Amino acid sequence: MSLYATLRPLLFALEAESAHGLTLYALGVAQRSELMRWVAQPPAALPMRVFGIDFPNPVGLAAGLDKNGAHLDALGALGFGFIEIGTVTPRPQPGNPKPRLFRLPEHEAIINRMGFNNDGVDALVRNVESAKWRGVLGINIGRNKDTPNERAADDYLACLERVYPLASYITVNVSSPNTPGLRDLQQGDSLQRLIGVLMDARERLAARHGARKPVLLKIAPDLDDAQMDAVAEALAGSGIDGLICTNTTIDRSGVSGALHADEAGGLSGKPLFERSTAVLRGMAQRLGDKIPLVGVGGVLTGSDAADKVSTGAALVQIYSGLIYRGPWLLTECVEEIRRQHGDTHVE
Fold this sequence. Notes:
Blueprint: H1 3-12, H2 16-32, E1 48-50, E2 53-55, E3 59-61, H3 72-76, E4 82-88, E5 101-104, E6 109-112, H4 121-130, E7 137-141, H5 152-163, E8 169-173, H6 188-209, E9 215-219, H7 225-235, E10 242-245, E11 266-269, H8 273-287, E12 293-296, H9 302-311, E13 313-318, H10 320-325, H11 328-341
Parallel strand pairs: 3-4, 3-13, 4-7, 7-8, 8-9, 9-10, 10-12, 12-13
Antiparallel strand pairs: 1-2, 5-6, 6-11
Helix pairs in contact: 5-6, 6-7, 7-8, 9-11
C-alpha cells in the first residue's frame, strides 16, 4: 500500500478545500526534506515533441490544482511531463463563497465551483520567477468575474502579455462553468474574434521576446455536434497551436442521487471520462492531425490515459485522479502509454 493510500482516509476526513491546502503544504515539506521518494516514484522518461515543445513524458498536471504557481518545486519533483498552473486572472479575486469543493467518493468524483479564485497575474509571475523547477510550464488564463464578455479580450491580453516570457505554452480558458457567461465565449463568432485578437498579440510578443510560444484553447465537455462543428470552424486557419479536451461538466446523470450531486459547479473525476473522451474523439475527427489535442477528464487509471491517446490525444493531463489514487497514478499512466503505444510518441 502506498503512503498516500494510508493517508487518504485522514485527508478525506477533512473538508475538501482544507485537505487540498494541507496536501500541497505537505508536498512542499517532503520536497524540501528530500522525502519525496516515500511519496512517489517519478516515471522513466518517455520523450515527446508536441507543438514544438520537448516533453520528458506525455502526462501532465491539469490546471486548477496550483492556481497561483506557488507549489511548482514540490509538484515538479513528482515527475510530471508538464505542469499547467492557473487559471489566473488579471486582478486578484476571492472566487465563490465557501464551501465550493465537494467529494463524491462512491463515484470517485469531485464537484467544484471555485470561481477562478487566485491572487492575480502579478502574484503568479512572482511565484514562477522564484521557483527552481524549470520543466515544461503551461499557464492557464481567464477573465475576471466582473469583466463583461464584450471586454473579455482585454483580460486575456493582459494575462498573455504578463505570462508570455515565463510560459512554455499558454492556455485560453473559455470553458469553466463557474464564471457566469464565460462559456458563451466558446460560441462561433465570439470564439473567432477572441482567438484572432490573441493570435495577433502572440505574433507581436514572439517578435518582442524572440520566441513563439504555443497558445492552446480549453473547451467544455458539454458540446453537441453542432457546437463542435463551430469550434472546429473557428479554429481552422486560426493559428491556434493545440486544443485541450476538456474542462469539467455541468451534467449530473452519472452521479444522480449521490450526496452533493446537486451542488452547482463543474463535475470531474471518473464520471467525466466518457463525456470528455467523446468530445476528444469528436474534435479529433473534425481536426485530423492539424491541431494536436490534449486529453483530460476522468483519468483514474493508466488504461484511461492510454485510451485518451488511442482516441487522438498527443498529451494527457490528470487532476481528480490524483485525489483518489495519489501521485503513483502519474507513473502508472506513463507506463501504460508506453506499453500500449511504444517508447516514443512524437508529433
